Amino acid sequence: MSSYLVAIVVSELKHTQPLLIQSTLNASQSIKITLYGRENQLSQLEFARNVTAEVIKVFEQFFQVAYPLPKLDIVAIPDFENGAMENWGLITFRESALLYDPTLSSTNQQQWVTEVVAHELAHQWFGNYVTMKWWNEVWLNEGFATFVGEMIGTKTFAENQGYDWPVEENFLLSVTSAARVDSLHSSHALSRSAGSVESPSVIDSMFDSISYTKGAAILRMLDSFVTRNVTQTALQDYLNSHSYGNAEASDLWASFDKNFAVYTSNACCRRIHLHIFPYKATTSRYRIHLTQNYGVLKQL
Ligand SMILES: [Zn+2]
């Protein structure tokens, strides 16, 4: 396990009644889920606890890899800088990303909590079980957690619970905001050379909408092209081949190539090393004509 995933919490927070769930893949393994928060907010952690219990099962089935630890602690921390952090078996959240009060909170908040919890749970496989080799390919962690968290975890949870949430529409809306960032001179390729990402400030700058949202958008396009069955088999192959180890993008394309009749490596590898690849659409009465050329927004 990578050292950046180790976390210890020392606090006076209280915890909910632990929930024991059975692994869907390993009959002899159970997982103890405990949520921590301020005493007067414990009831608002109940929804996140249900999401956690359900989405772990969804991911186990999708990846065919059992959640590997006997416990999962989830902590709502007041004044936590990030939305959440996927430490192995001890996930930390800012309160606003975890608390849900059915009498006060909006449906939007309910969906947001589900998305953040599903994103962090996805990291238990993409990021923790298999970790990117170096920070130049942060998108292997964040793009995957975004894609899998929303399109598999949140979507399946909503369907199973009968919630009519616009999961795909929200995903597409977020892609447009990433496209805006990607049209600036300051944008960067999804995969940069390892040598160009060394200082802490450059590493920090890799945690942006390019790595999260553009990465997820490319995975969604690939998923649509190769079909969901191929995506699932390729991801299972990728996780099994690099379990408890490190991987880079070429390992991912190799898993897709193994499971898809048409090679994806060339097309995907070229694109993740470019800034942007916009299409210009011109329409006539019965035709839409698409041309592709590299370009950026003019600087003001
Ligand atoms: Zn993440």
From TrEMBL:
GO cellular component: cytoplasm; extracellular space; membrane
Domain Peptidase M1 membrane alanine aminopeptidase, chain residue ranges per copy: 47-259
Keyword tRNA processing in annotation: no
Cofactor note: Binds 1 zinc ion per subunit.
Active-site annotation: E120 (proton acceptor)
GO BP: peptide catabolic process; proteolysis
Family named by the database record: Belongs to the peptidase M1 family.
Protein name from the UniProt record: Peptidase M1 membrane alanine aminopeptidase domain-containing protein
Annotated source species: Bugula neritina
